[in-house]
Amino acid sequence: MRRVRGGALAAIAMAGVLTLASCAKDSGNEGQAGGEGEEGSCVTAQAPPAPPASSSSSEADENVDASSLKVGLAYDVGGRGDASFNDAAAAGVDRATEKMGVSDSTESTAAGTESEDAKQQRLDQMASQGYNPVIAVGFAYAEALKAVAPKHPDTKFAIIDDDSVDLPNVTSLVFAEEQGSFLAGVAAVYKSKNCHIGFVGGVNTPLIQKFEAGFVQGAEAASDKVQIERDYLTPAGDITGFNDPGKGNTLANAQINKGADVVYQAAGASGKGVFEAAKSNGVLAIGVDSDQYNQKTVAEVKDVIMTSMLKRVDVAVYDYIKAIAQDDLSNMPERFDLKVDGVGYSTSGGQVDDIKPVLDGYKQQIIDGAVTVSDKVSG
C-alpha cells in the first residue's frame, strides 16, 4: 500500500497538469468538495472554463447489414454478469445483433487459473466452428491469439486492451483509460469531505496502472492537499483479483478506515465488494468500465456509486463488428480516447450534476491538448 499526498503534483512532470496547478488556491472557485462549498473544501485549483453547450446530435447508424456474421466472444475472467468490463463487451455484441442483425453469436468465459492451452482452445474452437469475427476480451488472450490467428487466416480477430499482436487478421481495440480516470480523480476531490480518497485496482498490471495514474493526476490537478490511498488485490500474474468481491470489500474497508471517503475501483467483478464496503460505511464510490449505477448485479448498492469511469468497450466492439460487416477497418481509431468518446464519465443518479461543468472543462482541456495525462504511475 502507498499513500500519496497532493503536494507531489510537481513530480508528475506533466506540462498540462502543471499549467492547471498554477491556478491553485483560488478561494473563489465555484463548486467545492461535496458540491456544496462547505468550509474546508478539498478543492484548491481554479476549475477550467466549461466548454460551450454542444448542439451536435449523434448521427443515425448507417443501414449496415451484419446478418451474415457469426460473432465469437471470448470473455476474460468473470464473464457476462461482472457488471464491468465483460458486460460492456457483451453490450456491444447485443447492440450489433439488435441494430445490424448479427445472425449468431457465442460466448465463453475464462477461468481464473486456466492455462494458455485453454485460452488457445477457446479461440480455436470458435474459429473452427465458423465464428467470424472472434473477439478476445482482455490482454490475457494475447499469447493465445498469437498462436491461433495464423492457423485461421480467413478469420478476423480482435483483442481488447492489447496492441502486441502484430498479425494481418488481428485488430487491437485499446483505450485511453488514464484520460477517463483523470476525470474520476477530479470528481473524487470535489465530492470528498475528508480530502482523502482511495483507488482499488484488481491486478497490478500496466493496464490497471493506467487507471491509477490518471486518477491520481486528476485528483492532484484539482487539489494540492488531497491524500490518496492506492492498493491492488493481487500482483501481476494472478488474475483472481478481478473476481474476488470479498477481497475487494476487505481492501476498501481498510482504505475507508484510514479516512478515505471516496473510493475508485478498477477491479472487475471484485468491484462489487468495494461498493458494499462504501455502502456499509456511508461513503461514496466510483465505478468503472460500464455505467455501474445501472447494472442489475450491483443494484442494491447503486446509491453509493456517484459516477463511473466509462470505458466504452461496448462502442469499440460495436464499431469493430460494423467495420467487419462493411469490410472496411480503415476508419477504426488507433485508440479510443476522450476525443472519440471512447472513455468518459457517467451521470446516472445525479450525484455529479453539480460538478458537470467542471468535469467537462477538464475534459475539453485534455481533448485540446492543454492537459496531457500520463499513463504511467508516479510516486
From TrEMBL:
Its main location: membrane. One of its GO terms (cellular component) is plasma membrane. Residues 103-112 have a biased composition (Polar residues). The keyword NAD does not apply. Residues 27-65, 94-120 are annotated as: Disordered. Residues 1-24 form the signal peptide. It comes from the Bacteria. It is found in: Cell membrane. Pfam families: Bmp (PF02608). Coiled coil: none annotated. It is a lipid-anchor. Keywords: Cell membrane, Lipoprotein, Membrane, Signal. The keyword Metal-binding does not apply. Belongs to the BMP lipoprotein family. This is Basic membrane protein A. It comes from Prauserella marina.
